[in-house]
Write a structure and sequence with these properties.
binds zinc ion
Length: 263
Amino acid sequence: MNSDPKAVEKIAGLIRESRRAIAFTGAGISTESGIPDFRSPGGIWSRYQPVLYQDFLRSEDARRRYWQMKKEGYYELKRARPNEGHRALARLEAEGKIAAVITQNIDGLHQEAGSRRVLELHGTSRHCICLDCQARFDPDEIQQRLEAGVEIPQCGICGGLLKSATVSFGQSLPADVLAEAFELSMSTDLVLALGSSLVVEPACSIPLQAKNNGARLVIVNHADTPLDSLADIVVHRSIGEILSGVVRECFPVGQACRNRATQ
Ligand SMILES: [Zn+2]
């Protein structure tokens, strides 16, 4: 499907009419910050097999491979900064135009851009956690230990297994976050699905459920998605470019937003 040349104006119009919009974001919003999609060529998972959670728990060798991969990917994540897309979503939230960001990303860039209500379906790389005592550790400190030659870092408090607070393959999504996300999908009137291929379950059913419940659906993604035929607007362009255009359209310089949402 070709991109609609009037997409920016139309999306801004839907946002103005909406009273409870949400954003749903995937890897595509962060590739614009230099974080490669894990599926893309050269992405870290093209060099490493992802470690399944069950293997991490039972195999020392799997834990060694897991931390080797984390060590190698550390600076890529650490260097990344929010882009125009992240900043536009933070602005829309601050202006009362979106209620929350639900994300499949683990990079913390939404929060760094200023978004306050961020639901991280796949956890976060911004801290490590002890699987035994639940103590949290700064990933910078863990990275220092890895670079000093530690292969499998352990909890300094109880000696338990440390892991990044991201959701691994085979690990269930955080139930409270998922429940909140589905609740939002039932109350929203507009979903902006941004940079997600909308194929991974159960995350992709959040926009679908919202649509089935009467919400409008806007999809901005470089590739086609299975929900394109249901969407009100589909755009195959840069998220940063589209959203910054939408923000300019919604909030012309020096003018407060009309129809400020009341929630
Ligand atoms: Zn511990």
